[in-house]
Predict the structure.
Amino acid sequence: MTNEVYLDANATSPALPLAIAAAVDAMQERFGNPSSSHAAGLRARAMLGEARAAARRVIGAGQGELVFTSGATEAIQTAVLSALCDLRQRQLAGEAVGDLLLYGATEHKAIPECLAHWNRILGTGCVVQALAVDADGRHRLDLLQEMAPRAALVCTMAANNETGVVAELAAIEAVLAAHAPRALWLVDCVQALGKLPLALATTAIDYAVFSGHKLYAPKGIGMLYVRQHAPFTPLMMGGGQESGLRSGTENMAGIAALGAVLGAFERGELFRRPDQLALLRERLAAALTASFPGLVFNAPFAHSLPTTLNFSVPGVTSDTLLKLFDAAGVRVSAGSACSAAAASASHVLTAMGVAGARAGSAVRLSFSPTATDAFIDGACARIARCGAALARHGAPADSVTPSASAVVADGADHVDGAELAAFLARHPQARLVDVREACEHAAAAAGPWHGRAIDSVPLSALPAQLDALLAQPARPLLLFCRSGQRSLKALHLLRAAGHQNVYHLAGGVALAPQ
């Protein structure tokens, strides 16, 4: 959408034009199988080699292996499987080995879930243990020092996906070198790629994982770094691709796209320097604090990625804030996209000791390292509009749930976004009713839509306005909201009250043509 301000880059990012062009070239021109020996295969193989070389240089792989995967989750599975297979072999050989699988308490859920899964499948008998963090979100090095002698595998993040907190990797390495020299070390570098300097071969990191779609490449492509001589067990066996480390015909379109992005980063094109990104963050922070009195940031900027802000507004839930921002065309999130459906507070903020109400109102704002000054200008203007709408109308009451549901003929109440223009043409007298809360309606700066005036009747206020809505039973009502959920509730409430000439916009404005 051209009218949206996308500030959820930690969840995913749009593919850059140069990445799309590289992917199209891989599918149309250099489409050969890189395992084939004819000319078409050789051209594809050359492209694969170019992308791998760029990736190796950007992450500083040195003599380590660089394996292309389907994403960070597969890379994590492969790394953990490799580490635990090595551990199991040493157990069977009678060696004295550690019995703890440590992971940072603020890790992405993919890490502890993977550890528990392979620990159970392989029967290592280890204890999967979280390593606590301090109030700033950094690993408790004192506790790591206590537990390190028992550690067989340690998993930490280079930078947190929800708060942007950057780990003290050098300090962690020092503790492991002194107290757990045989422990293997896995680092999630998904959010670090393109934002932090990486020289993995100069560290003791055994495995590092990356995801392409967090840095302008398509979904479905990722990378696994394996330190030279680190244990390795393939997750996927078959035709022997990736030097036998990951079988299956390579995702050449994804690899080409990621290679193009990393090449641009390496050449210093498009990407802003960390100091420039920090200035952009300061401008966003100033706009937020000016727009939302009492706003607090949940992670210190001093040791966080310059592209991530995590904040809370006292007395306003994250759900309300997300709906408010979304109405204004600003895309933010309440935390990890993988856990967006969960109702509980962020495990990251909970681990940091953030109080329940504050954690429950947290919002993550993240922008990409190619953000321009003009983009930030637009974001700040939208933020100010959201703050003004909330100040004028206040936080909404809880949405009402209809006490009764009318029987509705299948499909008779739905208007799909693609059918909107035709519906309005058939019903020139239809009344458009926005059932989003008043602050959302104001934040959207809603004017005429498809040439029609819009009435604001929040779902929470609908019972009090039933008589007015029922006064003209022959006039069609088209109810809409952000996603179609609240408009469907409003439709059921009106049908139960006796209004039969009412419809709702399925999928809401999110799926409707603008």
Confidence is low (pLDDT under 50) at residues 399-410.
